[in-house]
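Methods — Computational structure assignment.
A single polypeptide chain was analysed. Its primary sequence is given first, followed by the predicted tertiary structure written as structure tokens.
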Amino acid sequence: MDFDRILHFLFGIPFMSMYAFGCTIFLCLIYQIGFLRRACRLECVRLSALHFVGVYIFLFYLMRVYSFTGIGTIWIIGQYETLICFDEIYLIPFSSSESAVPYLLNIIMTIPLGFLLSAIWPEFRSVKKVAAAGFFLSLAIELSQLLNRRTTTIDDLIMNTLGAVIGYLILGLLFSIFRKKTGDKPERKTSPILRHEASVYLICSFLGMFLLYNSLYQYD
């Protein structure tokens, strides 16, 4: 029984998933320890334990998105004769599939993105910011997929952005049902390190996977 199977047997979590999560959070941990903690101390801001529980749920979700979409990484460069295959790029909307299933799956995949962003960070209780996050995260994934010969389509950009907006609307609906206001302005934070916490996690998690995750690596 190899090491991956032993971990799977003991903990129910394959080693590659643990490896992917470690890559996802590595740069985020550097940000938290080296920058976020210092900014909180200087501005006398205290982030609760519940906040960080939400953060790591968010990062785990991002890891699953990266794994499910099969993002390209620097480790894949040189594995193919040509770096980019233009036959796998679809720039005309709704031309990549005759079935509605892929479109629906892309929407479902990013609903938690909009939901978690607006639930954890009051700064993201704006449909424009959530839509921008969905679009740019999807764009980064699609561009990375040029490296590993996965299909790159404008449809994914549209559907993923739509999914993020739907997640935002679902949270807004829940807030309205329970009569909790969402229009209150978030606490003003002067430090960009604090103001852009969610954006930093998105960037660092993607870069961590792109630079550190080698999908070709397996235990023998």
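Note: Residues 3-212 form one domain.
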